[in-house]
Write a structure and sequence with these properties.
By secondary structure, the chain is an alpha/beta fold. It folds into 2 domains: 166 residues, Quinone Oxidoreductase, Chain A, domain 1; 138 residues, NAD(P)-binding Rossmann-like Domain (Rossmann fold), CATH 3.40.50.720. 27% of the residues lie in helices and 26% in strands. The chain has 10 helices and 15 strands. α3 packs across α4 and α6 runs parallel beside α7. The termini are close together.
């Protein structure tokens, strides 16, 4: 079978295709024939990290069960599934040991024709989803879902989304489908127009309105937003602190502006009795709940572009360009 690996190096050119023997499931495991994968910002960071090598990349993928190992119950050949980002996080409080089985980083990921994982790490994909659509769920979709759930989102709440990448667009769709109000930022007016068509009530171009936190304050009648999916990191956290409402919640998710410490006062989070939750994807139980929500709401993921298998490097380049709206997918 074929798979892509990260050979030694520190850029996308080190992505190499190779032929390997097809793995077989052991006791308690299943083999999944992968049909589609998708890219996340984390995958770009991983590919540019020279410490990660000889690793099959990508955390996100969907396919169908090709073989079932001994001792597996509840799963059959042909079932359509995803694998959870943190293989061993089935539910409950996060443990540091779960990092040891993060797909596409600590262990081999999904950019392979066939993968083998424990049956407990599988999640059945929504009934109305294609494999390409389901491939957007394990990281971006579940992250947005958990960010809102951990903040105790309810119908009528206002959500602020930063940019139009995978997590933010998923957050927009989840919020709108749940009866929430969504405000979204971008540097592109064209992307903001697309976001409006998905249900965004208000849009802010952060290039023409660099003090966008002041605009959020105006749009909310000086109340602030109930939830923020904070994907920017150190350079946007201060603006998020200024934008969140009293008792509101910031889901700290991304590091698009780097890993440095933010140069901001944390007092607003105290003064507002607000919360900051660190969100690093989610567990199998949350994933199952998310799928049930999708089966009811019939949300369709937003896929910007699907690249064929042989154009995997081009997919990475396109993702890094920032031209995408929603998700970038690779067919397998």
């Amino acid at each position: 079978m074929k798979q892509w690996i990260l050979a030694p190096g520190a850029d996308f050119s080190r992505l190499q295709e190779r032929e390997v023997e097809q793995p077989q499931p052991g006791h308690g495991e299943v083999a999944v024939r992968v049909r589609a994968t998708s890219l996340n910002y984390r995958d770009l960071i991983t590919a540019e990290n020279p410490k990660v090598e000889n690793r099959v990349p990508l955390s996100d993928g969907a396919g169908e069960i090709a073989a079932v190992g001994k001792g597996v119950t509840g799963w059959n050949v042909g079932d359509r599934v995803c694998v959870n980002f943190f293989r061993d996080w089935q539910g409950g409080r996060f443990r540091n040991s779960y990092h040891d089985a993060a797909l596409g980083g600590s262990v081999d990921g999904m950019l392979s024709e066939v993968v083998v994982f424990p049956a407990y790490s599988l999640v059945r994909i929504p009934d109305h989803f294609s494999f390409e659509e389901a491939a957007t769920l394990p990281c971006a979709g579940l992250t947005a879902w958990c960010g809102l759930q951990r903040g105790h989102f309810v119908s009528g709440d206002t959500v602020l989304l930063q940019g139009t990448g995978g997590v933010s667009i998923w957050g927009l769709q989840i919020a709108v489908a749940s009866g929430g109000r969504a405000i979204i930022t971008s540097s592109s007016d064209a992307k903001l127009e697309r976001a409006k068509k998905l249900g965004a009530s208000d849009t802010i171009n952060y290039k023409t309105t660099p003090d966008w936190e002041k605009e959020v304050w105006k749009l909310t009648n000086k109340q602030g937003v109930d939830h923020i999916l904070e994907v920017g990191g150190p350079d946007t956290l201060g603006k998020s602190l200024a934008s969140v409402s009293n008792g509101g919640s910031i889901a700290q998710i991304g590091v698009l502006t780097g890993f440095d410490a933010p140069n901001v006062s944390l007092f607003p989070i105290v003064a507002k009795n607000a919360n900051i939750n660190g969100i690093y994807v989610g567990d199998v139980e949350s994933f199952d709940n998310f799928v049930r929500f999708l089966n009811v709401t019939k949300i369709q993921p937003i896929i910007d572009r699907v690249f064929p298998w042989e154009q995997t490097r081009e997919a990475y380049d396109y993702m890094k360009s920032g031209a995408h709206f929603g998700k970038v997918v690779i067919s397998v």
